[in-house]
Amino acid sequence: MLIRSRKPWSLKDSEVTDEGFYRERRRFMQSSAALLASASAPALLAPRPAAAVTVAGAKPSPFSTDEAPNSFEEITNYNNFYEFGTGKDDPARHAHQLRTKPWSVAVDGEVERPGTYGLEDVLNGIPAEERIYRLRCVEAWSMVIPWVGVPLGDVLKRYGPTSRAKYVEFTTLRDPEQMPGQRRPVLPWPYVEGLRVDEAMHPLTILAIGLYGRELPNQNGAPLRLVVPWKYGFKSIKSIVGIRLTEQQPLNTWQAVAPREYGFYANVNPDVDHPRWSQSRERRIGSDSLFAPKQRTRLFNGYGEYVAHLYAGMDLSRNF
Fold first, then answer.
1. In the chain, domain spans
2. pLDDT of residue 54
3. CATH domain 13-311 topology
4. How many CA atoms, within 13 angstroms, populate the side-chain half-sphere of residue 40?
5. Over the stretch 189-217, which tens digit does the pLDDT of each residue have?
6. N or C end of the chain, less CB within 10 A?
């Protein structure tokens, strides 16, 4: 049972919900009574097609920061999604090519019920929540994003992880026709990420299906992306088509490409610098962020009280 006691990082609607967000949320709650929309639901974010799910009825969660979120425009126009290009604005310009409906996710490995499931079946019956999380990237910039998602642990449990399941490996769609960035060997495609099972089952870890009460935009990882708020952003893999539970630690893409720069854990740690820049401070993306002073980076992105026990006894400078 989740005890909804007030925590330092819990949500205060009066502090973080601006009028535009409130009106948008109310519009969605009034327009649909179900989490999963029918196949005929209209697209809400032009010019892309409608995603496999439409967000409605999501409940505010205590797993939120009380910091004011970035604007929808900032969140959707400054992205890392190399499948659509390496520039920060490339995803917003090219991701409309991605067809997100129908969408299937293959679940296999150390599970009792493997198979390929439609996204509606993956999410069916799991209540969606609104969670305002900080996202910190290794390039020393950050945002605060109001995600809508479901706990990853609730999804994994329905497939019956076996006792041999120690890790979870995630895979992004590989389709160069829809994802023009994959036509270049910038990275080995498809993109792969991984978590330990205890990290995946932690209540902070979600599969996001929307943001700001809307369907998840393509450039932000539609229709399904991982969000692990105490880790650097590259761990939060986008456009997921594969979830595999394994006994062996998976080799994530950036660790394979540059092991000196990117480790498996990717926990936000101001004391462990990237070889080419410091991680001790960060720049919040915003209208005047290029000229605003940087703020100090917090260990585990400020969620240390709730996740530090996962790494007890580990040398976080070696296991970075």
1. 13-311
2. 54
3. Sulfite Oxidase; Chain A, domain 2 (3.90.420)
4. 0
5. 999 999 999 999 999 999 999 999 999 99
6. N
